Amino acid sequence: MSHASTRTITLTGLSAHVVDVEADAAPGDAELHLLGLPELSVWPARARIRAAILNSGTPWPDARITLSVTPALPVYNAAADLALAVAALAAAGLIPPERIAGRVFLGELALDGQIRPIRGVLPMVAAAVRAGFSTVVVPAECAWEAAHVPGAVVMPATWLADVVDQLRHAAFRDHHGREPDPAQSPSCAVDLADVPGNQAARRALEVCAAGGHHLFLSGDGPATMLAERLLGILPPLTGETAREVAEIHSLAGHPGRVPGVTPPLSAPHHSETAAAIFGSVAANRPGAVSLAHRGVLHLAEAPEFARPVLEGLCRPLDSGQVHLAGVGRSVRYPARFTLILDARPCPCPEGRDCACIPEVRRRYRARLALLMSRVAVRAPVEWGDRKARAGEPSATVAARVLDGRDRAAHRLADTPWRINAEIPAPDLRTRFSVTPEAAELLRSAVNAGLVTADGLSHLLRVAWTLADLRGADRPQADDAAGALDLWKGADGDAAR
After folding, report:
1. Separation in Å, CA 37 to CA 5, 20, 43, 73, 490
2. Angle at 165 (CA atoms; ends 160, 66), nearest 5 degrees
3. Strand 3-12 relative to strand 15-26: parallel, antiparallel, unpaired?
4. pLDDT digit string (tens) for 432-441?
């Protein structure tokens, strides 16, 4: 009888932590005791581990086995099953203990001994490598995803019996092949040239892509088509940003995006629950707003969403993250995205003659009041003439957007911000000055009651974006006037 130890990884939100798993085998009845797990998780984990070992053809050790997890876990993740099982077998002398000491084991055990895939393998493996444990055993279905972590030696496993056999004979195989990933391609399947007319909306998309501003599309036109095509003009994800997006989608169980260069699009339906929109603490699963991180969140028919959802979006828009609290713990998920809202003039279904009185229309739009105070750009959408001349393709617009972003990034190089939408209001007035003519025009808009102080900050950010798009050093009066036009939209709705 002996002692053995290994490691696994646990996740709280996207924060990954190394967990030490110790096992001790002592003379006595053939029992299994688990320490450091939540009380309600002890029996299910013990039952799974025992059944998986027996159904793998390994006799249950004739010993009293005690497994200890350090630090103690407030919530048990079944991804620790494999580590607990191999530690128990190593302590009983069925596996050489030294062969599990330097490895990290991740995987949920089925009762028949199969190793099931897990969510969040990408941030887990990255945490193991950062902690100095490069060799990681993962479910075979997760191996290609884990192999994208630099410095990781990934060992795929399908059955517990195979893991035991390979550990006994020191014959673990490394994962070398990587499956092709469609998210690798920077190309976009849809193109702005496919949308006829809607020149104002197309211009609004370009400005929002260049500056990271939020957009409101009003009318019965092709709002969804336009929202989908915003991805085609956004700059590709790179470096730390791409890794962060990949980890979010890995935790959500969408490994097909790993790693990806195309910004994500999240378009939840208005019937979805608040947990689906914002995420779940109990399941440690990000919601739609986090799946849109560094990409686009599109709320089609936005007034149809529940009021708590619409009001709850304000905090992610302001802070760039979602904070969820549950019993005994809280989690934070990144959520910095470009928001696109679209709404018809009234709640009448599309294609039906409207019979709404003005009060009904007003109350319908009023549901968006809190969000509209954070939206800098507005534009109408309508079904254009399909025989009209096609507009510019996405590639042409994307090149201008990239140039504009490069100018903004150069100007903001000594700051923590990279796009105009991120600049705080005080810095807009003190560090980044517009021309006197532009300042006077914007002050006149405030004095006339067209915008509030918060609205003025949005106008300044958009004016800087317009200046970046045309290659100017700072906004002129025309840029301020253009920002004011985009703020009003075609229907004159100032929505302060």
Report:
1. 16, 12, 10, 5, 59
2. 60
3. antiparallel
4. 889 999 999 9
